[in-house]
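Hey, sorry to bother you again with one of my protein questions. A protein chain has come my way and I'm curious about its shape. It would help a lot if you went through both lines with me. I owe you a coffee for this, so here goes:
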Amino acid sequence: MSSNQELFSILETIGKSLDISESQHKLAEERYKSIGKWLAEGEYCILGSGKKQCFKDGDIYPQGSIKLETAVRPIGKSEFDIDLVFFTPNVSADDITPEYLKKLIGNRLKEHGTYKDMLKPLNRGWCIEYANEFHLDITPSLDNHNEPLNESELVADKKLKKYMPSNPKGYAQWFDDISSMMPTITITKRMFESRDSSFGMEKSATISNIPEHNLNKLLLKRFIQIFKRHRDVMFEGKNDAPISIIITTLATHSYLYCIERFSYDNEYDLMKDVLKYMKSFIKTKDGLYWIENPTVTDENFAEKWNEESSKKVNFDNWNNSCIKFFEKFHPNMGQDVLLDSIQEGFGSNPAQVIREEYVKSLDSNRKLGLIPTTITGISSSVKAKKNTFFGK
């Protein structure tokens, strides 16, 4: 592999260590479906325009980073935040205020023997906390009768004063459509064999395989995980970190821009370009910063940037810092410096994961009796194998 391919294989291993486990994901799904069933069976009815309405046929589903597969394990905690929507198709916004809708949802959850002791109010909904596992954040939503041609819904604003359109399913589809698009790949052929003139025999070269180069997630999803982890480390204990929806939206626009215009021979260079071009998709409208929700007309993800200038400054600082970090991050810095750099950018746990991968690989190579080759400051060796860029 090229040096930059080696770098991304390291980042891929880091990304895997930040993923929610399969067992956690399955358990969370089982539990939120049970919550949805409990809510949908509720007896709470609303006497609006002379007809009885309730939560019957309500549907609960994931949104945000869990749905997009860009969730990142929190620093120093084991609990993932899992964002959920409880959609109530039989309740009209004309018949119930946002405040009362939240109250009804809370009342129903408090009737459950287990949920009542795990319940915590949020701005627009409720959180059910499973200690050392995950937090299930539930936002109620209603059918948006004003937009019958799409899947948009209505959710309360954070002050519970009015309803506003939202389209988590549409956003997830937009994101998945772009993340499934693969870049144009150019592969430079390299000679991995040399002839020994003394004996007329060919000697096989050896290449580093630390850690295993095995992509198991679409590139854009892994990029965003890496970006968000760098943000989490940079802003740990501080306020006004760049929010995930802005990072995700700008990175998605940038990814599409890059793969439509350029070709790459490794993932690492593509990732750096995605970072570099993100700012190009921050627009201004009537003198205001504007990052539009691609699935909801006139929803501005950067709205708070126009209220608090520090939020825009912090985004710029993070983006610039992340670019500089990956510009200096390279495999020839030696093992100790490389691991220190990983800890600086991603925290102690990912650095420990990479250290353990090196140790396992070295042990495996010794058992196979391979001749050591020094790469990235670490003595190791494996048999050369075919490049599998992008899993091809």
Remarks:
- Residues 188-214, 371-392 have pLDDT under 50 and may be disordered.
